[in-house]
């Protein structure tokens, strides 16, 4: 098995790859990397002051708006009617920050009923409306 054998006069192309220059370049890059990493990781130690941090993020509350099979409305588990829904939605829209409305719609309830509830939420000016579903088995 000969490596890099001589070329005959009839052969113009050498079919073997010379990897020596590639190995040389990789070794040089490795040495450069080994030498520069300790320089980059050096830092000045500073003993920073400690403070008590207060939670400045105000998280909006979530409201469960349920429409069971019978088509009635439940606001956080309390039964309400259409007029009460408009009233509580207006109060929720005026709150800062606005609550996130999570709509729990029963599978058997009419689609029209869900759409009317969604329209009432949007008319009240509430920005966040989420649908709660269960993953398929």
TrEMBL record:
Q: Which Pfam families match?
A: ExbD
TM regions (residue ranges): 20-40
Q: Which InterPro entries match?
A: ExbD (IPR003400)
Would you tell me the Gene Ontology cellular component terms? plasma membrane
Instruction: Give the molecular function GO annotations.
Output: transmembrane transporter activity
Q: Which family does it belong to?
A: Belongs to the ExbD/TolR family.
User: What is this protein's record name?
Assistant: Biopolymer transporter ExbD
Q: What's the source species for this entry?
A: Oxalobacter paraformigenes
Give the taxonomic lineage as stored in the record. Answer: Bacteria, Pseudomonadati, Pseudomonadota, Betaproteobacteria, Burkholderiales
């Amino acid at each position: 098995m000969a490596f890099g054998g001589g070329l005959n006069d009839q052969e113009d192309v050498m079919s073997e790859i010379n990897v020596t220059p590639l190995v040389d370049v990789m070794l040089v890059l490795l040495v450069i990397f080994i030498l520069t990493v300790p320089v980059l990781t050096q830092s000045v130690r500073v003993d920073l002051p400690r403070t008590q941090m207060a939670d400045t993020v105000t998280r909006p509350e979530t409201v469960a708006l349920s429409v069971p099979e019978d088509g009635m409305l439940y606001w956080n588990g309390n039964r309400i009617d259409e007029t009460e829904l408009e009233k509580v939605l207006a109060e929720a829209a005026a709150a800062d920050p606005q609550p996130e409305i999570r709509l729990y719609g029963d599978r058997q309830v009419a689609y029209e009923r869900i759409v009317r509830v969604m329209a009432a939420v949007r008319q009240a000016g509430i920005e966040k409306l989420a649908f709660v579903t269960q993953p398929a088995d």
